[in-house]
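Suppose you are handed a protein chain with no further information: no name, no annotation, nothing but its sequence. What can you learn? This example shows the usual starting point.
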Amino acid sequence: MGRKAVTFISMLIFVAMLLAACGGSSEEDGTGDANGSTETKTLRLAENHPDDYPTAIGDKEFARLVKEKTEGRYEIEVYSGGQLGEESEVLEQAQLGTIDLARVNAIPLTQFSQDIGVLSMPYLFEDEEAKWEKLNGEVGQDLLATLDGSNLVGLAFYDSGERSFYNSERPIEKPEDMAGLKIRVQNSELAIDIVETLGASATPMEYGEVYSALQTGVIDGAENNFPSYYTSNHYNVSKYFTVNGYQGNPEVLLASESLWNELSDEDKEAFREAALESVAVQREAWAELTEEAREAVVEAGSELIEVEDVSEWRDAVQPVYDKYGDQFGEWIDRLTE
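A reasonable first move is to predict its three-dimensional structure. Written in structure tokens, the prediction is:
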């Protein structure tokens, strides 16, 4: 073998050794995933709302922060508009690990953690400030941790607004005004109990059927937040909107356990930090959308009945707390203390 060939081979060996040394350094300094990889990994996040909806805006901020905090080792692509399926389908895929991340409402998660159902209790929080102090804090993380064993990992809560009652018959100012009204509710025992405790007749119904039911008088009213009241056109057939924020189920940003187990401890912390930091951007977008919807329905002729003090309404739903106290008592205490 000639001298030039020997020199060339020696150089190749030297370069290979140098690359090996560089490749091993990331595992020692704690960067990379749990296996020490420093390659960029692209993840999929499922979102069933449109790209400009507040939750999608929050998702994208989360994605930006994850990329920043992991120095580009993780990139998250947000698939908005239900591209990856409806919430029930997305949850199944996240459990299987075929979807890495998802944003869903808290209500479907009660099939995996009954404790999360506490967030459906009426007039649970004193005000929005108290609510988000708790949900963004230790008790919120503990509540998300009740998903353990479901192959899902809760990261943070997103805002989904406050639900209020609206109807086509008359202004509702106090609980007694609910008497005799037929109010559409979601098909859950708790939702039915709340409305019937207030003296109305609860009518479980699919959301898509509500407009025609209001229009034809099958029901007198329903309940939801301002953006949903507006985008569903319910304001056209149900003009009296009582602003009393009786319930506020949040959204949840979560990861598949399959992804989570691949992350290093450092990256797990980065993902949690990114999720919590994205909440402020998501909530700001929600507040803007709510105000736009509120102004639009007022301009269209809706009558808003502002309830400044909800203590009378809280007293009226005490039987609901008596019934569900054993199930949710500990969480109610922690969320309201």
